[in-house]
Amino acid sequence: MLATILHKPGDIRCEEIADPKILQPTDAIIKLSASCICGSDLWPYRGLQPVDRPMHMGHEYCGVVVEIGAEVRTVRPGQFVVGSFCISDNTCPHCRFGFQSSCVQREFMSGAQAPYARVPLADGTLVATAEVPSADLVPDLLAVSDVLGTGWYAADAAEVREGSTVVVVGDGAVGLMGVLAAKEMGAERIVAMSRHESRQKLAREFGATDIVAERGEEGVARVKDLTGGVGADSVLECVGTMESFDQALACSRPGGTIGYVGVPHGVNFDGQRLFFGQKRMLGGPAPVRRFLPDLMDRVLKGKIKPGKVFDLQLPLAEVADGYCAMDERRAIKVLLRV
Amino acid sequence: MLATILHKPGDIRCEEIADPKILQPTDAIIKLSASCICGSDLWPYRGLQPVDRPMHMGHEYCGVVVEIGAEVRTVRPGQFVVGSFCISDNTCPHCRFGFQSSCVQREFMSGAQAPYARVPLADGTLVATAEVPSADLVPDLLAVSDVLGTGWYAADAAEVREGSTVVVVGDGAVGLMGVLAAKEMGAERIVAMSRHESRQKLAREFGATDIVAERGEEGVARVKDLTGGVGADSVLECVGTMESFDQALACSRPGGTIGYVGVPHGVNFDGQRLFFGQKRMLGGPAPVRRFLPDLMDRVLKGKIKPGKVFDLQLPLAEVADGYCAMDERRAIKVLLRV
């Protein structure tokens, strides 16, 4: 099959490789309905994360089970499934506490920018739908796998509640999903920090009540203006740079909460700054598995349309153009037809 | 009156100064029933915090109101009051959210290691009892002012719940109060990390179910053993050094919560470490004012005896001996008879 390999920063190719096979009795093989490119794929693509050997790219997926290992019990061939980018057994103590992204058997999914993929720990990782959904729902269900699940976790970690005032730092796909999540959770005011017109528009569609285009001190001043000088109850940090964390810390009120889901790169916190800032913080790789049933249900019932975040569709063979478009911020998120 | 002045690190003296006076119409003057020395007083005493000019020491207090400013409405001369070490108006948005230690008018109390003290923003800061309590309750009520309030906040910030597994890092007075707080909040298992026999004994009295004397990796291994390999739901960080934060991070489970109340000195966090550790964190100066009515009520009803934390009583004139005893860890906490 054709699959996506990153050979070195900037060198991404679609190449012929062997089809995936069952390696463990807990594995499943799925035929993907679609795949996509993640903002986090850009870290190694941009050389900001080491590429020691060719990387099989892609960790967001949904599709139809074609084969299962001997020990798989909860999914069977023919079923449509969505899985998390974090592989988990969903039975260990951390999973039972709802932190499947810290599962004792955690692996990170890879190789999903391809027509077929092997999913380890299929019972713990995959959630099946009752029926194979119609094709028009595939982008929405694909989004659940990571980008929506991660934005949702940002809002959950930031303790968004009915009536909350929320600031979303970052207008990438995850930030936009954070806006959608905050809206679904009942936030009253959702401030999207965005400088890009097309993203501002989408943020408003997903539920943003205010847009702040300024950054740094000016951005903080605007947020303070919008919140009567108080700051936000909840801030979703969806970037992962020191600049974005500075923004998040300065925009939240004392006792407010920051949910952070951008993998930190070059980020360091001074202890006294956090102490006297008095902000609650929780971040990490999103435990998407916790949210999968609920989010799939919202999609299948037509309550949410997270697939709108895909503003460019390409055939898998043109994956390199997709990386380029996201790298240059010409596309918010690229869906790959596999 | 005699009052306690820190002239430079190690040079603490009891000296004659003018009695405090009403400076603002919102002030009150109280005659202290007792005062005490705080672990945080040791930072400047040890030269770990700059001493630019003579410091009027002491921020924990309870006593009888002797004079009030023209605008004070909620307390009157003759009433017994307890106040927080953080002065707050108790009306600003941060106060209303329960974070009075980030009040827009916040000041830190000073000059309370003396027979009389001026308390600014008396209406927002002080809570009066219905009657003047008996003398034997004074140590307990004095403890509420900071050390218990701070240990309580550590447990509250660490989200201790009915049935929680809790680790307390630090066996100073605040850590011991954290044990008491966790017990009151219904924790099932309370692990006190302590190497000192007298402190271990007091920890057990306050509700610790387990003592871990080891530190570093050995300490973590013991906590993991005690928690079935999982780690604690809640960790109370009551020291403020990088070593103690390392301990706290390693002892809590993914998705667990760290409440930190030791003012961080030389503490720095790497962003990726916090991200992949997936620990919820909240710290800061304790909003004791939020807890005062409840904690005073528990003391007055005899439910808790936080005053046990004072294991040395000295007359104010011997305050230097008190600092020395705490610096050398010969005393957990020193009560000063004023």
Automatic annotation (TrEMBL), chains A, B:
Keywords: Metal-binding, Oxidoreductase, Zinc. SUPFAM superfamilies: GroES-like, NAD(P)-binding Rossmann-fold domains. It holds the Pfam family ADH_N. The keyword Cell inner membrane does not apply. Its cofactor is Zn(2+). GO terms for molecular function: oxidoreductase activity, acting on the CH-OH group of donors, NAD or NADP as acceptor; zinc ion binding. PROSITE patterns: ADH_ZINC (PS00059). It comes from the Bacteria. Residues 10-336 form the Enoyl reductase (ER) domain. PANTHER family: DEHYDROGENASE, ZINC-CONTAINING, PUTATIVE (AFU_ORTHOLOGUE AFUA_2G02810)-RELATED, ZINC-TYPE ALCOHOL DEHYDROGENASE-LIKE. Belongs to the zinc-containing alcohol dehydrogenase family. This is Enoyl reductase (ER) domain-containing protein. It comes from Neomesorhizobium albiziae.
